[in-house]
Amino acid sequence: MVGQTTGLKKSLDEHVNIIRVVKGLIFSFLITLPCFFIFALFLTYTDFPEKYTSMAVLITTVISVLVASAYSTKNVKHKGWMNGCFVGLLYVTILYVASSIVDKNFMLNFSGILTFFIGAIVGCLGGILGINMR
Fold this sequence. Notes:
Blueprint: H1 2-15, H2 18-45, H3 53-73, H4 80-103, H5 110-132
Helix pairs in contact: 2-3, 2-4, 3-4, 3-5, 4-5
């Protein structure tokens, strides 16, 4: 039984580098938090229309996931797209759960599904870029 667990862990490590994914995830939020803070200040002290808030969140998400997934895969030997995809999906999941807790409205609608899809695709692209930038 122990041999199977070790084999499974080795197989997972060959495809997804968990430590790099977690570092990429942390890096993505280190990009996101200051961006959201600056945007909140901008919304507070200007007449910027609030209807563009969701677009600003989406742009911040795309930039954060792209940069973080590229960062997380820069030292990975192969499967950069898969590592980047995990960064994107975990990022969007944490962001979605946190916003659902704050809004007390945990509902998955078309916009939420689209955000997960965008996170995964951008994560894959960032992973591909990161692995090819060495």
